[in-house]
Amino acid sequence: MxxxxxxxxxxxxKVNVDASKLLNRLNQFETNLNTLPWMQAGGIVRNxxxxxxxxxxxxxxxxxxxxxxxxxxxxxxxxxxxxxDIAPIKDGVSVGTRSISYAKFPQLGTKKMVARPxxxxxxxxxxxxxxxxxxxxxxxxx
Length: 142
Known about the structure:
Blueprint: E1 2-6, E2 12-16, H1 20-55, H2 79-82, E3 85-89, E4 92-96, H3 104-108, H4 123-139
Antiparallel strand pairs: 1-2, 3-4
Helix pairs in contact: 1-4
């Protein structure tokens, strides 16, 4: 980038400014703002979903099973719980499962199965995510 300056109407002075480092830093800031805090927020939500399995439903406990099996509700094999992942998307993050074909049935319920929603964001998660973004924006750590 070149900047031309005239001093008192005399001969112009040419000043060369290499703005590439500044532009690279601004681009990195934008990239980090679009990914880092979102992925961290996704981690908060993922941990909350995993806690829903441990607590067997939050804030309201899931309906008990009719059978007398010993394993926790929705956790016979661990596949559903283990499939919860985080993926960056444009201007955000996706948290959930894409690999388990039956995942929607316990979440939403069916005619024969009561819903046991496990993908839920709790009030404390919202507060934690707000604090996370506030920290990133105010500290310039992105």
